[in-house]
Structure formats: structure tokens, C-alpha cells
Design goal:
By secondary structure, the protein is of the alpha/beta class. It contains 14 helices and 18 strands. About 35% of the residues lie in helices and about 20% in strands. β9 and β10 form a beta hairpin. The protein is globular, with a radius of gyration of 22 Å.
Length: about 450
């Protein structure tokens, strides 16, 4: 059974254009509701969203679909994706839904689904939901007396904030730390600054005024320049930037230098290893993580297990092989002792615990290893299979030969955007630049 609607992170697309229409959302609500309805009792779905204007449309359409098959709908309003996962378990939900396109611009939106255990659905379950949508569901509508009802959970933000704060060591405080918090005008615009302030930090919030259109716009983890400048301007100890749904983060040290997800993973893994809490013998990351991270962990007797790109695949590997830490270079960090999915705020608190305990500046903590020169470029394409052409296949083989055993090459289609991503790394930065440039031109020609 194959999937057509679902990608690496749920369903995603241009708002009010197939598949991100009210009609499709209604069907998703009905099909997903039926998939997770058990015999007898009340069936509950937990629904959150980020701050996109299109979220209103999709929220109402999904809600209608769930109500039509007899589910009770608990609406959270704007909250991070990991809050939906956590509250799905806490509220004994049968299903969790996050309406978000994560780091994409406002005109995109998406639907992410979580099972009752708080984990993202498997490929197989998503395929089954698509099959229900394609098969027609007229006969599955609830009788009038069995229709569901919807209500808003007023203290959702407080519940999530307290949960996150409890992951911070009780014997530590953020007193004396000045922190810039860039919420990307997204889902964490209230909860992240409030939680850090309540733990004692002096918080300088930026990009915390969502208007439905400015999510991720020249701000947040994918555009950290504003955060970096604010850190320097205010003389802050560090900066934290989330993406639109706050399941990832990027950090800036006191000089305004960006610290990526690989360095953050190394920092937290070292702290967990010292504390004796790191399980699985290492860390799970994707093929995009820097070779320097792999070597850093190896020097400490730890392994770096790699998966294909997507935090869901990281989590699947963690669960199967007993790891309790994983993540992506982009800043998705999954700390299984605390969360079932990437959680930017919880990851930030673990970094801040290391900072508060040792007192070392973030510029020192954020340089755990020397990264191998790496270059990533995105090539837009309108359709077709440019990677399958003979010219591109030949170029890929030649590139791998040039990089040899001391380098790596990853070329793949994005699962969330209409782009092909080219990543190469090697000790020779000039060779890396030349190889990526040549591949970029070859793929562009093949995609015309």
C-alpha cells in the first residue's frame, strides 16, 4: 500500500490548494477518526496549530470531519507540535493532530498526525488512512445522537510549560542569564519566553507578534540572523531560535555565532554520558549530520547511527534499538526520556542546564567538535525525475569517486518542499564547493 498525500512529515502543501483544502482536511478528519475509533466509549482527538492564517480553515474542516464520525475534539489553539504529542497522551486521546507546515513560509500549511502513544504515525497507518479517504466514507457517518462535540482546553499552554520546566534540574536556575528568544512568530510565541522567564532568565523576546502571515519570515531557526544580531546588541549570554511549530531550535553564542543541531547533539550527548543516562551506546542522526559529529562520538566510545532524513525515521530507529537521544542537523532533537518527538523548548532547557551548571560561555560549549567542511544547496524543480536521468547518474558517480572514502555525498528530493538537496563534505572545502556546483548545474539542466 503506497502513500500519495503523506510525505516525510504528514500532509503539506500550498494553503487552499489541493491537498491543503478544506475538502481534503474534512476527509482526513473522517478517515483518521475512523482509523482510531475503538468500540464503545468516548473517542477523543487533540488538535493544535501554529499561527498561519490558513490554520483557521483547516482546523474547522478537520473538526467537522472528526465530529461527523462521532469523535470528541479538544482544541488547543496555537501551541508547539511537541505539546500536541504530549497532551495527546496526557488527555488520553485516541489521536493527535498538529496543523502546521513547520519551517515553511506562511502560504504553506500541513497536517501531522500522532497516535495515542504520542508518536507520529507509521507509513503503513498513513497509507491505510489514505485508502479510507479514497474508498468513500458515507456509510461511516455517525448517527445524529452519536455526533461528536468540540471544546477548547483553556490551560493547554500552562500544562505544556510546566511539563517542559520539569525537565530542567531542580537544583539549577537560570538566574543571571540573559537570553534572546526568537519564536519565529510561530507556535511558541508565548510559551517559550514565559517558561524561560519563570525559570529565572532575563528574556529578550523577538518575533513574538504573529499576524498570520509573518511566521518564519526572516526570523526563527531557518533565518537566525535577527537572533544573532539581537544577542550582540543586548549583550546576551546566548540566543535561542525556534521554527514555526517549535519542534526544532538553533542557538547563537554570546558573540552571535550560530550553533547548529549537530553541535547541540554533541553537547547534550556528552552531558548525558557523564551523567550515565545515555542509552543505546550513542546517538541517532540522519545522513545529513556532519562527519565531524560521527568522529567526535567515536572518540568517546559512542556510535552515530544514521537514518534517512526525517525526524520520524530517527525516532523509529531510537525505539527499535533502545536509544534515548537522536536528532537532525537542522535542530530537531528528540530526547526520549522527556518527549516522543522533536521538542525545541525541552532541548533548549537541556543546553541551558549545561550552561547553568558549569558557567562556561556558550562559545566554548557550542564548539564540541571541528566540523568537516560541508556544503548544502537546494535546486528547485517543477516535476519529473531529474535524478533518474543518465547525465545526473553519471555526475553522481564521478562526484563520489572524487570524494573518495574521506568524504560523503547525499543527493535527495525533499519530502516537504519541491527541491532537490545536494550535500557534500570533505576535508578539502574547495573540492566540496566544486562538486556541489557541478551537480547543481547538471540537475538544473536535467530538470528543464
Amino acid at each position: 500500500m503506497t502513500r500519495k498525500l503523506f510525505g516525510t512529515d504528514g500532509i503539506r502543501g500550498l494553503a487552499n490548494t489541493d491537498p491543503m483544502t478544506a475538502e481534503v482536511a474534512l476527509k482526513v478528519g473522517m478517515a483518521a477518526g475512523l482509523q482510531f475509533t475503538r468500540d464503545g466509549g468516548v473517542h477523543r482527538v487533540i488538535v493544535g496549530k501554529d499561527t498561519r492564517r490558513s490554520g483557521y480553515m483547516l482546523e474547522n474542516a478537520l473538526t467537522s470531519g472528526f465530529l461527523a464520525v462521532g469523535m470528541e475534539v479538544v482544541l488547543l489553539g496555537p501551541l508547539p507540535t511537541p505539546a500536541v504529542a504530549m497532551l495527546t497522551r496526557s488527555l488520553r486521546g485516541d489521536l493527535g493532530v498538529m496543523i502546521s507546515a513547520s519551517h515553511n513560509p506562511f502560504q504553506d500549511n500541513g497536517i501531522k498526525l500522532f497516535g495515542p502513544d504520542g508518536y507520529k504515525l507509521s507509513d503503513e497507518t498513513e497509507a491505510e488512512i489514505e485508502a479510507r479517504m479514497a474508498g468513500g466514507m458515507d456509510g461511516d457517518r455517525a448517527a445524529p445522537e452519536r455526533l461528536g462535540r468540540a471544546w477548547r482546553l483553556d490551560d493547554a499552554l500552562g500544562r505544556y510549560a510546566e511539563y517542559c520546566k520539569n525537565t530542567f534540574p531542580r537544583d539549577l536556575t537560570l538566574d543571571g542569564l540573559k537570553i534572546v528568544v526568537d519564536a519565529a512568530n510561530g507556535a511558541a510565541y508565548r510559551v517559550a519566553p514565559e517558561a524561560l522567564w519563570e525559570l529565572g532568565a532575563e528574556v529578550i523576546p523577538i518575533s513574538v507578534s504573529p499576524d498570520g502571515y509573518n511566521i518564519n519570515k526572516t526570523c526563527g531557526s531557518t533565518s537566525p540572523g535577527a537572533m544573532c544580531r539581537a544577542v550582540v546588541r543586548h549583550g546576551a549570554d546566548l540566543g535561542i531560535a525556534f521554527d514555526g511549530d517549535a519542534d526544532r531550535l538553533i542557538i547563537a553564542d554570546e558573540t552571535g555565532t550560530v550553533i547548529d543541531g549537530d553541535q547541540i547533539m554533541a553537547l547534550i550527548a556528552d552531558a548525558m554520558q557523564r551523567a550515565g543516562t545515555l542509552r543505546g551506546g550513542g546517538v541517532v542522526a540522519t545522513v545529513m549530520s556532519n562527519l565531524g559529529l560521527e568522529r567526535h562520538l567515536k572518540d568517546r566510545g559512542l556510535q552515530l547511527a544514521r537514518t534517512k532524513v526525517g525526524d520520524r525515521y530517527v525516532v523509529e530507529h531510537m525505539r527499535e534499538f533502545g536509544f534515548n537521544m537522536g536528532g537532525e542537523q537542522s535542530g530537531h532533537l528528540v530526547l526520549a526520556d522527556h518527549a516522543t518527538t522533536g521538542d525545541g523548548l525541552i532541548a533548549a532547557l537541556q543546553v541551558l542546564a549545561v550552561r547553568a551548571e558549569g558557567g562556561k560561555p556558550m562559545s566554548e560549549l557550542g564548539r564540541q567538535f571541528e566540523p568537516v567542511p560541508q556544503l548544502l544547496k537546494n535546486v528547485n524543480f517543477g516535476g519529473g525525475q531529474p535524478l533518474e536521468t543518465e547525465a545526473v547518474q553519471t555526475a553522481l558517480k564521478e562526484a563520489e569517486q572524487k570524494l573518495g572514502v574521506d568524504g560523503r555525498l547525499v543527493v535527495r528530493k525533499s519530502g516537504t518542499e519541491p527541491v532537490i538537496r545536494i550535500m557534500a563534505e570533505h576535508g578539502d572545502s574547495h573540492l566540496v564547493a566544486a562538486i556541489v556546483g557541478e551537480l547543481e548545474q547538471t540537475i538544473r539542466r536535467a530538470g528543464r
